[in-house]
Amino acid sequence: MGSYLTGINTFGPYDFGTGLDLDPLAKDLLFRLFGTSPGSSSGVLGGRAGPVLADIPGVGAVVVKHYRRGGVIRHLIKDQYFGLGKSRSRREYEMLETVRSIGVSSPEPLVWAVRGRFVYRAFLVTRMIDGARPLSNVEDWDEGSCRTAVEKTAGQIRRLIEHRIHHVDLHPGNVLVDGGGRVHIIDFDKARRVPWRREKLRAVYVQRWQRAVVKYSLPVFMTDHLIKELGLSR
């Protein structure tokens, strides 16, 4: 299992943090993945780039996230970020540690890394979730299974609300369902604690979810059921 970071390490041109005791071979194989270009994502709500998947001896199956810019600026700057504080990958690593500690099912963070200092590229390594399929790929689900997954997702959202954590992009594409039917929330990039009342945060979660359901023509019951499970009404 990973653990809270104890310091920043260096490997070649990378600064990184991890709770793992990586042997030289595993470290070399892992860091080579940061130079591997991610492919295009597939499926509804798949994001800007697909992750890099690998099996690292002594570590296991992992997912490597390369941070990519969105919006208009992505046409000028694809994957570089600026800043003197914590990198985006480190912030997401620490947020994953936080949400897992309060009982939210999310990928186990293993390594965060950056290349560069004031201008940097960022990477995050998490443990792969066996048999994971996005909830947004509705062709994979019958209605009963989909409703059950939405119910479980609502339970996870309630935990986030209780601890005033705002996942800024929580939609069906960021919910994975494993082979045992357990749901996992992913992509905590930019997630943060907020001082809002619970009612406001609950409404914000539903609004973002509903917008994705409408935009990508997902079944309307996915929103209706979430609203019901969160104790709201239309």
Task: Give an overview in words.
- By secondary structure, the chain is of the alpha+beta class.
- It has 2 domains: 9-127; 133-229, Transferase(Phosphotransferase) domain 1 (Transferase(Phosphotransferase), domain 1, Orthogonal Bundle), CATH 1.10.510.10.
- It has helices at 24-32, 88-101, 143-162, 198-215, 221-229; strands at residues 9-11, 14-18, 52-56, 60-66, 81-82, 109-115, 119-127, 133-134, 165-166, 175-177, 183-185, 192-193.
- The strands form 3 sheets. Strands 1, 2, 3, 4, 5, 6 and 7 form a 7-stranded antiparallel sheet that branches. The chain has a 3-stranded antiparallel sheet with strand order 8-10-11, with helices on one face. A two-stranded antiparallel ribbon has the order 9-12.
- A hairpin with a 5-residue loop joins strand 10 (175-177) and strand 11.
